[in-house]
């Protein structure tokens, strides 16, 4: 299978939970400790073999991201692409907008409002895990059971295995994905957070589903749908419970908490 050379960043969200900050800048260009959220992921991807970065943007933010790339993009060794998501059809729908760029090789998806710190950069670790398993990988975080209703939760098969040396954490074979279950219905307390390795087969599934939808409603096509389809069709999907920390920057309160934690780190 081809090497991973592309990183996809769905950054089309309007960031309503980060008002009033998002009146002045797109959500993923808001700064934490003086650095845009987007930049944490770009820095994470340096040295991991990534050569191209695909930004899935809201059309109203094209100028802001174009200016950022023109001004700051030269600091990174990537070729940048912009694709627009005109309706908020979910993270799976966002990725379909770049189907022409992603249909022939595996790629990484990261969400910039999850700042993730591990033994080594998360993108590098995801690349190494894919080399070992040759199947889709999702980033997992264990949460309190009472919080499972906020996330996609996975069911797993058998015991976890140790991740490759230097990566850290545990690897699970996933058997099922349940979206936002009540704690009493959750198959585990392992939840999907902001990182994936996806294959051409996965984005092919997403495109097929998108073409059958009569209307693209809000969050109509989440990534979990294509991953669940992969499992139903007999494919394998693995989850990596990383050994580091995730900082959620999705609300003003959490953004400020992240800034305080990073300043102390």
How would you characterize the overall build of this protein?
With 265 residues, the chain is α/β, with parallel strands linked by helices. It has one domain: Spore Coat Polysaccharide Biosynthesis Protein SpsA, Chain A, CATH 3.90.550. 29% of the residues lie in helices and 28% in strands. It is built from eight helices and 13 strands. It has a nine-stranded mixed β-sheet with strand order 5-4-1-6-11-8-12-10-9. It has a two-stranded antiparallel sheet with strand order 2-3. A hairpin with a 2-residue loop joins strand 2 and strand 3. Helix 6 packs across helix 7. The radius of gyration is 17 Å and the shape is globular. It starts with 5 loop residues before the first strand and ends with a helix. The mean pLDDT is 92.
- Roughly how many Å apart are the termini? 38 Å
Mean residue pLDDT: 92
Low-pLDDT regions: none
The main β sheet shows up as:
9 strands, mixed
SSE blueprint:
Elements: E1 6-10, E2 31-32, E3 35-36, H1 37-45, E4 52-57, H2 62-72, E5 79-84, H3 91-96, H4 99-102, E6 107-110, E7 114-117, H5 122-133, E8 137-142, E9 152-162, E10 170-179, E11 190-198, H6 200-212, H7 223-232, E12 237-241, E13 245-248, H8 252-264
Parallel strand pairs: 1-4, 1-6, 4-5, 8-12
Antiparallel strand pairs: 2-3, 6-11, 7-13, 8-11, 9-10, 10-12
Helix pairs in contact: 6-7
In short:
The protein has helices at residues 37-45, 62-72, 91-96, 99-102, 122-133, 200-212, 223-232, 252-264, and strands spanning 6-10, 31-32, 35-36, 52-57, 79-84, 107-110, 114-117, 137-142, 152-162, 170-179, 190-198, 237-241, 245-248. With 265 residues, it is of the alpha/beta class.
């Amino acid at each position: 299978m081809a090497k991973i050379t592309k990183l996809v960043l769905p950054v089309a969200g309007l960031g309503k939970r980060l008002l009033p900050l998002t009146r002045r800048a797109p959500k993923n260009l808001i700064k934490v400790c003086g650095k845009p959220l987007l930049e944490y992921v770009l820095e994470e991807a340096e040295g991991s073999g990534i050569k191209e970065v695909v930004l899935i943007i809201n059309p109203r933010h094209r100028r802001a991201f174009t200016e950022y790339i023109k001004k700051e993009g030269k600091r990174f060794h990537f070729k940048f692409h912009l694709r627009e998501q005109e309706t908020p059809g979910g993270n799976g729908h966002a990725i379909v907008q770049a189907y022409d760029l992603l249909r022939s090789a595996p790629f990484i998806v990261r969400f910039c409002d999850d700042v993730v710190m591990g033994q080594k950069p998360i993108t590098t670790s995801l690349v190494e895990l894919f080399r070992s398993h040759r199947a889709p990988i999702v980033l997992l975080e264990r949460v309190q059971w009472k919080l499972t209703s906020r996330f996609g939760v996975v069911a797993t098969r058998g015991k976890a295995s140790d991740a490759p040396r230097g990566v850290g954490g545990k690897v699970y074979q996933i058997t099922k994905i349940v979206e936002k279950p009540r704690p009493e219905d959750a198959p585990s307390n392992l939840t999907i957070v902001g990182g994936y390795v996806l294959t051409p087969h996965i984005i092919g599934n997403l495109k097929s589903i998108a073409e059958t939808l009569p209307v693209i409603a809000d969050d109509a096509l989440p990534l979990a749908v294509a991953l669940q389809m992969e499992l139903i069709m007999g494919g394998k999907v693995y989850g990596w419970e990383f050994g580091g920390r995730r900082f959620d920057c999705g609300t003003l309160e959490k953004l400020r908490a992240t800034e305080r934690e990073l300043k102390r780190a």
